[in-house]
Amino acid sequence: MGLKTPKLNESELLELLRRQDRKAFNYLYDNYSDALYGVILKVVRTEETAQDLLQEIFVKIWKNIAQYDSSKGRLFTWMLNIARNTSIDYLRVNRLEIQDIDTAVYTVEQGQSIYEEINNNELKEVVSQLKPEQQTLIEMVYWGGYTHEEAAQRLDMPLGTVKTRVRSALRDLRKFFGA
Amino acid sequence: MINVKEYIESGILEDYLSGNVSDQERREVDCLSKIYPEIRTELDSLSDTIEQFAFANKVAAPAALKGKIMAQLVFAEDEPETKVEEVTEEEEDNVPVLPLNSRGNSFQWGWVAAASVAALVGSVVYFNARLDTLSTTVAQQQNEIKAQTTQIAQLNDANNQFVTLKGVEKSPNSSVRVVWNPKTQEVQLSVLSLPTPSADKQYQLWALVEGKPVDLGVFDVSTAFQKMKTTGQAEAFAVTLEKKGGNPTPHLEELYVMGKVAG
């Protein structure tokens, strides 16, 4: 469901990436940039910042690709970690933007049209089965790099509740995706 | 021995994926997922879910961004020269260091032979892999030579007029060479010496036609011949420094070099 044009399998792609092959970058960017951009936009909320971060993230991915160890996990998971760490660094340096993440959270809580960009209707339907609160938790914790403690504080929930719900949100989501 | 089912249900894998684990817990998950296939499968399945969720929320990034990013990256085919240097360096590394004099025992010859064969096999594999890169370089150079040959043929045309534009008061040591072919109307230019302009400025070439300046385009400071706009007539050529992209009329106080067409 993930890749648009699965012409290369992951090990072929990695081999080409390690050789700094231009085609491999094209493939990587064409397949993953929109997903990563969507993630970053949820975290920082201003398009200008998200674009700067997306640039920084792809440069980091390119420079560090040799460090990716496929025995430890999926390529996207690794890229998402880079995206998350880059966004967190940005938010910590620019305290002003932390306000923006509050806005992001509230937008989701109020159930506004945060998902209007989804172009795949099937996926849209799947995601809409999640409670808004679960979506928020996934975005904050898995994308935004919030610790459980920070999420508990922001959402004014007991820590234990946040921990349980963060885990169950992912399991519910997996059920919806039918994985 | 751990209870795999309990371990999975503890929620540690979700916390691992969201980064909510200590370093020790992270190493534990890395290690256990290698030992127990069930843990590996569960971890991959949860990763997939996060990936699908991200794809469900994708937003098209602006098209211009890709080019901006690519401009910051180094690609294998961009640096053929460096690659060639690397070959030489690693070639030296490939030569096996064999301590023949210090330990001349005959039983070592087997190892020497083995090392040589290994080095040979290694070199063959290595150079085969490099061959692609090198043939790309050769192809690029052939193209360059072709382009230069065409240019030389153009420069050798009997109708060409060579005009050397000399520096005026503002910049006495500057000079620019213009090659103009009145028949084909082609104008080419090569900078012999000009001060490097600031980033927001560019030099612009003018032809004087019946006493009036005609724009022949802007150019960068480069000794390579650059094609300019064509002109069928010219009494003289001149270069002024203008804003980037050029101006419709020259600023004469920014005149750097000029030269009359012989005749």
Give the topology.
The complex is a heterodimer of chains A (179) and B (263).
Chain A: H1 10-18, H2 22-44, H3 47-64, H4 75-93, H5 95-109, H6 121-128, H7 132-143, H8 148-155, H9 159-177
Chain B: H1 4-9, H2 12-17, H3 23-35, H4 37-56, H5 64-70, H6 80-94, H7 109-155, E1 161-167, E2 175-180, E3 187-193, E4 201-209, E5 212-219, E6 226-227, E7 236-243, E8 255-260
Antiparallel strand pairs in B: 1-2, 1-8, 2-3, 3-6, 4-5, 4-7, 7-8
Helix pairs in contact in B: 3-4, 6-7
Molecular structure report:
The complex is a heterodimer of chains A (179) and B (263). Chain A is mainly alpha-helical and 179 residues long. Chain A folds into two domains: 7-93, Rna Polymerase Sigma Factor, Chain: A; 100-179, Arc Repressor Mutant, subunit A (Orthogonal Bundle). Chain A contains nine helices and no strands. The N and C termini of chain A lie close together (11 Å). In chain A, 37% of the residues are buried. With 263 residues, chain B is of the alpha+beta class. Chain B is elongated, with a radius of gyration of 33 Å. Mean pLDDT of chain B is 83; it is low at 81-92 and 98-104.
